[in-house]
Design a protein that fits this description.
It is a single chain. The chain is 70% helix and 5% strand. It starts with a helix and ends with a strand. The N terminus and C terminus are likely disordered.
Length: 292
């Protein structure tokens, strides 16, 4: 009975020690993933602040400041959502029309309409003359949908499906699955193989390590104690190494699914929008994906 209690206590102690090691390793992984979050949050706050400054400048009739900041924002279009881009183009269209630069106003209104074909101007906030100009552009765009031969080149946005959120979720469940989902099958198999090697190695060496530890703790021969400990210590390090490999590949699979790879046009996307040229009859275009 006494021996059974001692073995039970030893088992519970070993179990709690393993749980403690697992939680420490899990905390390390979470910390590594969270290191990327602050930069993204700060960037989002700065973008929102810039949009608010543009809105305040426009409402205060400070068109020069609003134009400069809105133009600067469009140079970093990948940082903004389609709705925010629509607002920027609409604001520039209103500014340019008020400044008698109708050609530029037309281009920005057309760009806004490619993002939101149902866009309407508030007749209570915008003069009837501008509303009439905008509605004429909207009607012309609709009538020329099937014939763009004589249309002047302009920036146009076409929203395409972004697979990165789904790919990251799949890689969270199984490393390599997200790469398969995005079409990088070779990379997906490599990621899965490395992760699987790490997991199998971790489980195998864990069993060997536990056996070596039990032998070390049970050893009473002073001559063999050092050798038993050396074997246990070596297996302990190898086990941790396999865990680090598996955890690193898991984290890599998630971030690779989010921030790397190529689209169907062979272009490597940056954080946010994927940009690539497209051509139709008589018109140059720029295609844009939804940012994650």
């Amino acid at each position: 009975m006494t021996l059974f209690r001692i073995q039970s206590k030893h088992f519970m102690f070993a179990f709690l020690q393993r749980c403690n090691n697992f939680l420490k390793n899990l905390a390390l992984i979470i910390f590594m993933m969270c290191c990327f979050v602050p930069t993204w949050v700060i960037g989002q706050e700065q973008d929102i602040k810039l949009l608010e400054e543009i809105k305040r400048a426009y409402e205060a009739l400070n068109y020069a400041e609003a134009e400069i900041k809105a133009t600067a924002a469009l140079e970093n279009y990948q940082r903004f959502t389609p709705t925010q881009l629509t607002g920027l183009h609409k604001t520039l269209g209103l500014i340019y029309y008020s400044d008698n630069r109708e050609e530029l106003a037309q281009r920005h209104f057309q760009s806004a309409l490619t993002l939101n074909p149902q866009l309407q101007l508030d007749s209570l906030m915008v003069s009837p003359k501008i509303v009439k100009f905008f509605e004429a552009i909207k009607f012309e765009r609709h009538s020329q949908a099937n014939d763009r031969v004589d249309v002047q080149p302009q920036i146009r946005y076409i929203l395409v499906k972004d697979k990165r959120p789904g790919a990251a979720t799949r890689s969270l469940v199984l490393p390599g699955w997200g790469q398969h989902y995005r079409g990088s099958k070779t990379k997906g198999w490599i990621v899965t193989a490395f992760w699987g090697t790490g997991i199998v190695g971790y489980l195998t060496t864990s069993l060997a390590r536990n056996s070596a530890r039990d032998k070390y703790l049970a050893e009473q021969n002073p001559v063999k104690i050092e050798s038993r400990y050396s074997t246990f210590n070596q297996l302990h390090k190898v086990r941790n190494g396999f865990f680090f490999v598996a955890a690193s590949v898991w984290v890599y699979g998630i971030f690779d699914a989010l921030f790397s790879g190529t689209n169907s046009h062979g272009v490597t996307p940056n954080y946010g929008f994927m940009l690539y040229p497209s051509a139709t009859k008589g018109m140059s275009e720029i295609r844009l994906s939804i940012p994650f």
